[in-house]
Design goal:
Layout (H helix, E strand, L loop, with lengths): L3 E5 L3 H13 L4 E6 L2 E5 L5 E5 L15 E4 L3 H13 L3 E10 L2 E7 L5 E7 L1
Parallel strand pairs: 1-4, 5-8
Antiparallel strand pairs: 2-3, 3-4, 6-7, 7-8
Helix pairs in contact: 1-2
Amino acid sequence: MIGYVTLGTNDLNRAKTFYDTVLAELGGKRGFATDRAQMYAAGAGPMLMVCTPYDKNPATVGNGTMISLAAPSREMVDKVHATALAAGAADEGAPGERMPTFYGAYFRDLDGNKLCVFKMG
């Protein structure tokens, strides 16, 4: 299954500040790091890494690419979405029920990567 997901950034320090703030709401903390990458984890599950591209070309957004972050409650979905927007994210969809068992909210990080925070059930 998934071990980690990587998102490209053109400004690693700015990305770290953003993800320090947003992922803290879900228990995410900094883990492994290099001069061009920062890994985040919340326990033993899959990790999220932000990094500058290895080929040194600008990071770009993948059309149709989205990372989804699981939340323990609908209230936490609301909180993470609000935190992301306050940290500079662009709104891609306010929190709400998308189908009977899926509550989600969408935003784009400072580099334009699309993320969803959701609660199933």
